[in-house]
Each structure stands twice: as C-alpha cells, then as structure tokens.
Amino acid sequence: MDLNFSKEDLAFRDEVRAFLDNEYPKHIKEKMHNGDELTREEIVEWHKCVAKKGWMGHSWPVEHGGTGWDATKVYLYLRELALEGCPTFVPFGLQMVAPVIWTFGSEEQKKRFLPRILNFDDWWCQGYSEPGSGSDLASLKTKAVRDGDDYIINGQKTWTTLGQHADWIFVLVRTDDSGKKQEGITFILVDMKTPGVEVKPIITLDGDHEVNEVWFDNVRVPAENVVGEEGMGWTYAKFLLFHERSSIAGAPQMRRNINKLVNKAKNVFHGDTPVADDPTFKAKVAQFMLDLDALEMTELRGLAAQREGKSPGPESSLLKIKGTELQQRITSLAVELAGHEAMPYGGPYGFTDIEVAAEKSAQQSAPKYLNFRKVTIYGGTNEIQKNIIAKAVLGI
Amino acid sequence: MNLSYTDEQNMLRDMVSKFCTTDYDFETRMKTVNSENGSNPEHWKMFAELGLLAIPFSEEQGGLGGGHTDLSLIFEEFGKAIVVEPYLANVVLAGGVLKRSNLENADELIAGIVSGETQISLANYEPMKGFNLDNVDATISSDGQINGTKSTVLNAGNADHFIVFGKSGDGYAFGLVNRSSDGVKVVNYKTYDGFVSGDLALENCKCDAVFSAENALEILEETILDAIVCVSSEAVGAMEKSYKLTIEYTQQREQFGQSLSKFQALQHRMVDMFMETEFTKSFLLKVLATEDSDEKRKLIFGLKNQIGKAGKIVGEEAVQMHGGMGCTEEMSIGHYLKRLVAISHLFGNPDYYLKKYSDS
Fold first, then answer.
1. Residues A139 and A35 in one domain
2. Which of A69, A281, A306, B330 is most buried, with most CB under 10 Å away?
C-alpha cells in the first residue's frame, strides 16, 4: 500500500492544473469565488469547456467516451477541480441516468442519449420522489398507461432539482399495480417539451428556487423511451441511487471550504482574540479535518473498487451519511464564525441592491446553512441509508 | 423554595397565549414577515392596549414593574408562534437602556414606547467587531457630535430614534439620535429569521442628548442580560413547539404502510428533542429564580450557551424529521429553525458564552 503519487500521477495533476489555468472561464471562476449565482448559460458553458477537453466522462467506461483513468487519476482530477472552486457537475445526466442507459438501455438509446449527455447538449433532471412517496419511494403512484406505440403519463413528481433548466427527465412510473409495490415500476425518459409537462417552483428555506414539482397531465411518450424492460424500473432505480450516493460525499470541496473558513477566522473576532486562535473553534476544526480524512479515504476505497469493475453497491450509503453530515457541519461552522454578521438576508446570494456592512460571505452563510438541511434528506434520507446498511451490508 | 408562577403571571401568560393562538397563526405571521416594514401596526396597537409594552418599566415610569419572569412568560409564548413584532428592540433593548439611564426626558420616551407611538432602536454592535460590548469605534464628542458605523440595529427601519453607544472621553456614553437628523444614514434589511434589522452610518451627526456617561457600559451590559433572558425564553417556546409539531407531523405522515411516529429510531429522537427542551427550560427557571447577583449574571451566560446549542439541535432535528417538506418556505417548521439559529448567535454565540461562563 502506498499513498504517494507516482511521477506520472503528478504530471497528470499538473495537466489538470494547466487546463484550469488556461481554459476555466475567468468570469465563472470569479462568480464562484464570490459565491454568486451562475446562470443556466454559464453552467452549460462550464460543462462544455470540460467536454471540449474530453474530460466529462471521468467515471464512464471508455467505450462510451469515458477517460479510462484509474482511481488515482479520477481522485486527482476531482480534487483539483474542487480546490480551484469549479462548479460541481450537474449529476443527473452524467452520473445518474447515463450509467442506467449504458447498463440497461438499448443500442439506439445509447447512441441517441449518451453522446449528448457527455457533451452536455441535454440537461437532465430526476423524476423520482412524489408527495406521498419520499423515503418509501416504491409506493410511487405516477401512472403510465400503454396506448399503441406510446405511454400516457399522469401524476406528480417532486423535489426535482433544477428541473426549471432541464431538457429531459428520467421518470419512475407505475405501469402495473397488481403485484408488490416494487413490481410494476418502469423507468422512462421524457422530453420536457412534451405537451402536458409542467414545472412548478418550490421555494426552500433559504429563499432559493432550486427544486420543483413536475406535473404530468396526459403526457404522451413513445414506448421506445422506456429503458430496459417494462416493470423492471425498481432494479434500475436502485442501481442509479447507488451511483448517486457514491457521488454525494464531496470531500475535496469540503477541504477547500474548511481551509477558506480557517483563513477567514484569522481576521474575525468574537471576543478578545481571533476566532482562529480560540481553543473551542480549533478543536472543532481539528475534529472536522480528521473526520474528513477518514471520509476521503473511504471514498478512495470505493473508487479503487469501481476501477476493478465493481459497481457501487449499498456501501455507498456510508459515504452519503458521513459526507452529508460533514457538509452540514461546515455550513454550521460558517454561520458560527459569521455570528450576527450572518443576519442580513438579501436572498441566497447576498445583497446586490444595497450596501450592507456585513461581508458577503457572512451574509451567504445562513442561507447556505439552511439550504444544506436538504443534504441529509435527499438521495434517500440518512435514516433510510442506515436501514440499507443494516439490511444489505450488515445482514441484520 | 417556590417554583410556581403567581396568579398574575399566569394571567399574563394566558393573555399572550390567547393573542398568539387567535391573532397570530402562521399565515398571519408570514404576511407580516413579507410586508414592507416587517411588523404589523395593528398588533403593536393591541400590545399597547393590553399593557404588554408597559411590563418592564417601573410604576414611576408609567410601567407595570415587571421583572425577568414576566418578560420570560411573554417571550416563551412569542416563541411558540415565532412572533416577529419588535418587542425586543423597543421594550427590552431601547427601553432597558432608557429605564436605567439619567436621560432627562427618559420618562417621556418610555411613555412613547408604552403607548406604542414611539419606536426606538439600540445601536451598539459594529461591523466585524464581535460580541464584546466595549469593542466599539463610534465616538461621541463632548459637544454631542457622533461618528461611527453600527450594525445589527434591530428594527432600525421603523425607529424614530436611535440610542447609540459609543466612546466618550475616557469612557463610554449613549447618544440619542433622531432618525431625521443630518448625518444619519439608515440601511434597512430583513434578516434570515424573518425579522428586520439595519445598519446605521453616523457622520458628524448632532445628538439630541448625550447621557449616562458615568455608567453607560454597565447599563448596556445589564440590558443585554435582560435581552438574553428574553430570547432564551423565546427559544424555549420555539423548541417546545418544534418537537410538538414534529410529533404531529410524524403521526400524520405515512411511509411503508405506517405512520412515521411508529418507527422506534424516530421515537427516540423525538424523546431527545423533548429532553433538550425540558433541561433548557429548567436552566431558564434556575435563572429566573435567582436573585440579581454576580451568580445570576454567570447563570445567564450559561443560559445563552445552553439555548444556543439545544435550540439548534431541536430545530435541526425537527426539520430532518419533516423530510423534504421541512426544507420548504411553505411549512412553518423551518421558520422555527431559522429563529432558533438566529437566537443562538444574537448577542454572542454559544462558544463565546461558554467562555464567559467559565471565566466568571
């Protein structure tokens, strides 16, 4: 075992750095640095910039346009991106529906959708949860009825992240309700422009519009858009969730954020000394750092296993739980550091119309903290993750 | 030893509780939160008529002579309905300074607060200066000129006057500043918990009066201690409501063919929320039952630490157990969390007060 990087690895890291120095759009970099909101166009621009370099498929098989990197390279790549403060990739196409398509989809579907996902020509979103089906996802009721060569979909999905920007949605629909609830679920791809699809915003605690309800009113979708077999959707859905969960942890971003926070704390006074010198604060940071090391190493173990051909399994729940807990801890620490400077509320990105005495990062800390309440809930609540570990990993 | 409230105190609680349950449902609250000045003049008038605005002032000052316990009762009920009306800013903070001051027309200003006709905000904290009350740069000159920048000025947008704390000579003093005086610039904003606050820039501004130069810092400290008792009580009310709402929600919400409240893992967590609330309530009662003394001061520091930690735990757990719905603006539970987090940082965060507790 060896944690040192080879010469080749270091050369690769430098290549990533050079790419970021030269090609990461400056205006996006600046916005990310200031915590400003990116427009849809800017998010697309960033993905296209990576796609042009040929690096979008870092987790994809080579035959579908993947980079073929080993675990170390993937790790170095994602770490460099995170340290540079790049926007995270919109995961719904790239990391969620794509593995389902290349594993279970038809040749036509692979040809039709995968290159466009890899090039970020299509923005995907997720149609999983319903108002009555959250943790108990399999109880979903959105119905699809076969009508000639089409299905007709009726129902409502919710918590659809960035659905307002999406071109396509992958949807779990019920095509049969005669058997067990896990049976009779079908995985289908729907063009968001289809008549009868309506996106309604949900405003979250931080005041942001990030998630949506997606309504289906007699939406007619060609049967060729069903992935795999009708009625097998639950199997594909779980496969996708394992992939989703294994990409949620976000250790490199957290490393960057905690370093930023500690730096800031050098110039923040709550009492007589800088917060960075306060023993209680230092203890919290130290505890965070060592938890982060353990998380990152667990993530690396998962990556190494994936490189050996193993698909992420139920053990990805470990990363989801710990990763999201740590993400929340850091947003909490940021609010603590800001103290009452966090009070002014100018929306999730701070004030843009008036000059407020509190620093922008302080203004953004509370909305960010509030927004991040979601992370222990989405992708399957952490309570559900513990059920999965108990059942599928520990065999209890 | 006697740990019960008096009959009058129980009546006071019933009165506030009645207002909160009949006149201040969540929808009404959110209308106020989303209104331009963030408070409702009708409610303020009602508070004045009910005598609520007179509670902490002495009878000589035209008040009802109430103490910490009376204020605590009011705020605990406010916390259950997350009331955003500017009671803390006017009655506790500005009123707290005025009633202890040597300002000549203090009684007149207090009368204005009591009748609800005058609104006054205390301006003591400054940007990036932390929580130490004496850490200010604002200056008040001997001829009453005031210069400086203030932040976290609660209810600044609605204030007719500001009481500004600043350096004066070798010590500190308060300056009474009329909102419309030359050299006063107010920046209003909403705060994330649904309240209103503001920044104040004062440039060669002429005060209407300079007062309490002998003991301004002590007055400020005592006033902030009052305020801590108030927001702590508010937090206790908000915590109680949070766990109750969570029980209610988990009883209604069904997943896997049964209500969420049937799951033992969640039951234990709701028990933890209940316990956090009860122990915090006990600490609050210890403070209320202690005579004014250095010991009480120390206990108030401890209380601020306790509510900061416990309030956040209860608020976060409540949102978590409400799932996705808990993260929406539409549901009340997240608004309790917002207020609980804001309270944990107002006047100084838990770590700051743990240190003060251990140092005193």
1. no
2. A281
| Domain boundaries, given as residue ranges, for chain B | 7-115, 120-215, 217-359
Q: Does B137 touch chain A (CB under 8 A)?
A: no
Q: Do A207 and B326 touch (CB under 8 A)?
A: no
* B256 to A135: CB separation less than 8 angstroms, yes or no: yes
B190 alpha-carbon distance from chain centroid: 15
For A21-61, give the DSSP string. HHHS-HHHHHHHHHTPPPPHHHHHHHHHHHHHHT-TTTTS-
Q: How does DSSP assign B113-150, residue by residue? A: HHHT---EEEE---TT--S-TT----EE-TTSEEEEEE
Is position A115 within any domain? no
Shortest Cα distance, chain B CAs vs residue A210, angstroms: 11
Of the candidates B119, B124, B105, B97, which has an alpha carbon nearest to the alpha carbon of residue B45? B119
Token pair recorded at residue A264: 């800031």
Select from A354, A366, A374 the Cβ nearest to the Cβ of B192.
A366
Distance CA A256, CA A327 (A): 12
A chain contacts of residue B345, beta-carbon cutoff 8 Å = 335-336, 338-340, 342-343
Contact B124, B165 (CB under 8 A): yes
User: pLDDT tens digits, residue range B175-218?
Assistant: 999 999 999 999 999 999 999 999 999 999 999 999 999 999 99
Q: What is the ipTM of this complex?
A: 0.96
- Judged by CB atoms closer than 8 Å, whether chains meet at A381 and B187 is answered as no
pLDDT at A299: 83
CATH code linked to domain B217-359: 1.20.140.10
Beta strands B209-211 and B171-178 are: antiparallel
Contact B338 A370 (CB under 8 A): yes
Distance from the A33 Cα atom to the nearest Cα atom in chain B, whole angstroms: 21
Euclidean distance between CA atoms A127 and B20, whole angstroms: 40
pLDDT value, residue A313: 75
**pTM check: above 0.80:** yes
Provide the CATH number for the domain around residue A73. Answer: 1.10.540.10
Catalytically annotated residues of A: 244
| 3-class state of residue B332 by DSSP | coil
Predicted confidence (pLDDT) per residue in B330-360, tens digit: 999 999 999 999 999 999 999 999 999 999 9
For A374, the closest of B327, B338, B342 (CB atoms) is B327
User: Token match 């002495």: residue?
Assistant: B58
Closest CA to B74 of B240, B223, B231: B231
Under an 8 A CB cutoff, do A203 and B329 touch? yes
Chain B residue with CA closest to A271: the answer is B132
Q: For residues B38 and B337, what is the distance between their CA atoms, to the nearest angstrom?
A: 19
Domain end, chosen from A231, A256, A271, is at A231
Residues from chain A that touch B255, judged by Cβ atoms under 8 A, are 133-136, 139
Containing structural domain, residue A227: 124-231
CATH class of B7-115: mainly alpha
* CB atoms B341 and A355 under 8 Å: no
Nearest to B319 among A139, A345, A373 (CB): A373
Using the Cβ of B303 and the Cβ atoms of chain A, whether some distance falls under 8 Å is answered with no
Give how far B50 is from chain A: nearest CA, Å. Answer: 31
State which fold the B120-215 domain adopts: Butyryl-CoA Dehydrogenase, subunit A; domain 2 (2.40.110)
Pick from B249, B229, B240: which is nearest to B303 by CA? B229
The three-state DSSP-derived secondary structure of B171-228 is EEEEEEEECCCCCEEEEEEEECCCCEEEEEEEEEEECCEEECCCCHHHHHHHHHHHHH
In chain A, residues 27-56 whose CB comes closer than 8 Å to chain B: none
Do B321 and A368 form a contact (C-beta atoms < 8 A)? no
In a domain, A210, yes or no: yes
Phi, psi of B52 (to 5 degrees): -65, -35
